[in-house]
Amino acid sequence: MSVIHLETGRDLLGGALQVLYLAQGLQERGVNSVVMVPKGSEVAEAARKRWLRVEEFTYRGRADALSLARLAWRFSRSDVQLVHVHWGPGADSLGAMAATAARAPVILTRRAADAETEWMVGAKYGVFHRVVAISGAVRDLLVEHGVPAEKIALVRDAVDASDWQESVDAAERNSEFELEPGVPAGAMVAQFLSRKGHWVLIDALAILKRRGVAPTVVFFGGGPREETVRTLAEVAGVEDRIRFAGFRDDLHRWLGSFDFCVLPALSEGLGVAALQAGAAGVPVIGARAGGLPEVIEHGRTGVLCPPGDAGALATAIAGIVEDREGARAMGERARQRVGNLFPVGAMVTGNLDVYREVVRGRG
């Protein structure tokens, strides 16, 4: 079998990492995989480091007619048995149109748990032979919006736990991020987007500061609202409690050294950062939003709070930092849960089963 994976995102974020996990796992099972990405993307570089076959194309956005023509030509070649459209700006619409023009069987991985308009659901999902949902929350949302349940396959995201087993000690972490020795430190791993809820955490840190509890949180990531978040931190008077670390390709070295991970998202497909933190043995304080409750077992591997509730988030953080022994036990249970329920092999098998079903259906 041969598969083309279309990923239009340029940064090596959680979704793009899943594409690489999948393509590599398929290669190991004898399935030829080609990763198609925009020229000059971080995803292309990372894919080559994994010895994956990469094809780059010029991409100027969802309205790029030239890219559409190029993709349609590529999908029409005899070495393509299936097109798997992943995520990124315009990937779903562009991939659907190109595959339809090439008469190639095509599936889509749906990553977001955001609502879509009714006309968009009918126009877009009708083209795909199957839709892969990365969480039960995404699957339920698709059904709610009119996608037939029999068309949806639930294949949860995964993490290679072996990448997250070793980390630096607290002293090295403190030196790297200019943290105060002895002060509890947390991490938030997320793009600076409104739905990620940075403002909720800033409000929670302000509440904690007034209570005399002052953990520091390192923000990992980048994005269009970073300057807004910096301004909010200054206005709330907690800029001294936050460090901005940007994107780190060595995150696996540092994440396990933190006392907790915070994910106050208002909407989340599943939460790759929650999987990574769990694999690193770090308890996660997250919002009860989207697929996060499928990763975080409340009270055992972390704590779940109502989305947007800064007071509840502050209380949860205080509980974690004040009970270090309990937090370590939570982290160990998180490591076991992620290792048992979200292995890469299961994700690869789930997608491969979908491929075989679609190809058999095409005769």
How would you explain this protein's 3D organization?
There is one protein chain. With 363 residues, this protein is an alpha/beta fold. The chain is built from 15 helices and 13 strands. The strands form 2 sheets. The chain has a 7-stranded parallel β-sheet with strand order 3-2-1-4-5-6-7, sandwiched between helices. It has a 6-stranded parallel β-sheet with strand order 10-9-8-11-12-13, with helices on both faces. Helix 3 (65-75) packs across helix 4 and helix 8 (198-211) crosses helix 13 (310-322). The mean pLDDT is 95.
Distance between the termini: 14 Å
Q: Report the total helices.
A: 15
- Going by helix content, strand content and strand pairing, the class is alpha/beta
The general outline is elongated
Q: Could you tell me the strand content as a percent range? A: 15-25%
The topology string of helices and strands comes to: EHEHEHEHEHEHEHEHEHEHEHEHEHHH
Report the helical percentage. 40-55%
- Major sheet details: 7 strands, parallel
Taking all residues together, what is the mean pLDDT?
95
Radius of gyration: 21 Å
Indicate the low-confidence ranges by residue numbers.
Answer: none
Which strand order do you get reading across the main beta sheet?
Answer: 3-2-1-4-5-6-7
Number of strands: 13
